[in-house]
Amino acid sequence: MKMNLKTELRKSWIIMIKEFRQIIRKKAFMIPMFMFPIIMIIFFGYGMGGTVKNADILIVNDDTGTASGSIIREIGSFIPRYGDPRMFSVTYTKDLSQNEAERKIDAGLYKAVLIIPSDYSERVAKNESVTLTLLTDSSDTTSSGLIINFMRQLFSGTTGSHVLLKIPDIYGKLQYIDFLTPAVIALTVFFGTIQTMGYAIAGERQDGTLVRIMMTPVSRGAIILGKTLHQLVLQLARAVVLILAAIVLFGVTMNGSWLLVALVLIIFTFGAVGLGMAISAVSEDMLSFQAISMLVAFPSMFATGVFYPLSSAPDWMRWIAYIVPLTYANDAMRTIMIKGQGLGSIAHDLIILIFFGIFYFALGVYLFRREA
């Protein structure tokens, strides 16, 4: 009995060593396996912000007196906590109409515009009611909500209850789900494309299907084109279902063009196909592919403003966001679906997405042809 136990333990030890050797030989798997939890801690800790830092705000001060000066100074110098950066980056102007201010918010130049009327100081001195207009980019519900709460506290605590805030709904009554949905659609397309490309290439290579396909008269170009077209149709269909479900179930607003949404997602999917091919080509098997793809894809949701605005993230994370195509897909989708803007407003995002698409697709095709 003792000998049998000893033999079984020795065999178990051999099996354990074999498993470790197999993992160690998978160089593409080893680094992500240890790096992934560290990266998750970093991105969860800093990406799930919920604060506003250096938000661009325009103050239109038409007041001819001096009472508005203290309010303006307090807004410009406000720091949420000791050691934090200022909450606002303030620009000052005068003689700007509400319509012109709304256009500046539409263009993404400011998160908010505060309009102080010309008789502000006079009315405060007479202890009369005075109304200020606060316009916010409500497509960013997190920043908008924090700015509104700050302004309400500021005016209620500084000059008494005679100062009222008028806060027009530029884009209608929006909730957090309206902010979240466009980015979740882009994120779903990003994740879904990369993962299904992995199963279509790395998985087929592991089970031998890809080799058998290569032995047929079908060219590599035809294989790539077929898999790309499959992804484009599949991801567009998923996006339509998600948008319709969000509208029906949650009352999400769709203010823009379905055709523009389709254009953004087609360009974005094109790049994600290339990235999926590239990761598949350098992965030894599905285990390696899953580790690398999660290391690349999963942190993107916290660095690109899916759940919270980029203004709440630290500077170093925003620099990462600028090199991730999901950032520009999120921005374009929100501009279309929430703001109802046209092609001109998303041209910058589209140009960058086209660049990323060409780069990733070319890289994916090159690596696939070399490795397949």
What do you see in this structure?
The chain is 67% helix and 8% strand. The chain is an alpha/beta fold and 372 residues long. It has 2 domains: 55-166, abc type-2 transporter like fold (3-Layer(aba) Sandwich); 175-371, no CATH class. It has a 5-stranded mixed β-sheet.
Keywords:
single chain, alpha/beta, 5-stranded mixed β-sheet, 15 helices, 5 strands
Percentage of helical residues?
55-70%
Distance between the termini: 52 Å
- Spatial ordering of strands, largest sheet: 2-1-3-4-5
Number of domains: 2
Described by strand count, sense and barrel closure, the largest sheet is:
5 strands, mixed
Radius of gyration: 27 Å
Shape: elongated
- Can you count the helices? 15
In total, the number of strands is 5
Helix vs. strand class:
alpha/beta
Oligomer: single chain
Order of helices and strands: HHEHEHEHEHEHHHHHHHHH
Q: Overall pLDDT, averaged?
A: 77
- Tell me the fraction of residues in β-strands, as a range: 5-15%
Low-confidence stretches: none
